[in-house]
Amino acid sequence: MFAPGLIQEIQRHPFQETASHTYSHYYCCEPGQTKEQFAQDMRKAKEACQKYGCEVYSIIFPRNERNARYDDVLEQEGIKNYRGNEKHWIYSPGSRKEMNAPLKRLFRLLDAYVNLAGFHCYSLDEINEYCGKLRNIRSSRFLRPYVPGLKLLEPLRIRRVKGQMKYAATHGKVFHLWWHPHNFGVNQKQNFQNLDSILRYYQKLNREYGFLSVNMGEMGELCQDENISAGGQG
């Protein structure tokens, strides 16, 4: 496993989860790869995590390429949660070629600034719709990095994120924000200012509406608790 110091730093802080991103940044929907190859990759990923005492229950698929035919492999390796895509055609999963279709890319960019495709928030019941052992804790918003050429549109982009957060807080929904930490390596000042603004807004929603911040593993446990209380099979 790369960067063991970072793994240990995460483990030292409460409420943080160590999840899987596969071993080799495996793309599950690209031509030529197989289920057997994916199974071997996941076994290696699990072995690497066990060296640091990590029990992994969640996975983030590289490029969000989830292949439903591989679900049983994930279940065998103890994975319970994954981050799926937003529930809209412009975010529908597939190979890199399919995801990078020009029309999809254009609409995804527009949706980052204006409410083109909805709030992308959902209830615990929606997570429990698939009552197998895997829970789809869907993405609500990818926090795009700051782009100098689009700096005049930055207020719209951050307002879009906050609008989704408030919708979730006032309607009892889940809002799932994510980003690539390495994207903050350039234009660090602006990227961290944006993140700070979003986190301060979360604190406001927490005070006013009891809006909670949880990791994917904790969200899976909340879903299980609700399913059990409703008489389902958690």
Compute the separation of the termini in Å: 32 Å
* Biggest sheet strand line-up: 1-2-3
Number of extended strands: 5
Structural class: mainly alpha
Largest sheet: 3 strands, parallel
Beta-strand content? under 5%
* Mean pLDDT score: 90
Rg over C-alpha atoms, rounded to the nearest angstrom = 18 Å
Q: How would you classify the quaternary structure?
A: single chain
Order of SSEs: HHEHEHHHEEHEHH
Uncertain residue segments: 228-234
Shape: globular
Question: How many helices does DSSP assign?
Answer: 9
Percent in helix = 40-55%
Characterization of this structure:
By secondary structure, the protein is mainly alpha-helical. The longest helix has 22 residues, at 188-209. Residues 228-234 have low confidence and may be disordered. The protein has helices at 4-11, 35-50, 71-76, 96-99, 102-111, 124-127, 154-171, 188-209, 216-229; strands spanning 58-59, 81-82, 135-136, 141-142, 177-178. Helices cover 44% and strands 4% of the residues. The chain starts with a helix and ends in a 5-residue tail after the last helix. Strands 1-2-3 form a 3-stranded parallel sheet, covered by helices on one side. A two-stranded parallel sheet has the order 4-5. The chain is built from 9 helices and 5 strands, in the order H-H-E-H-E-H-H-H-E-E-H-E-H-H. The relative contact order is 0.12.
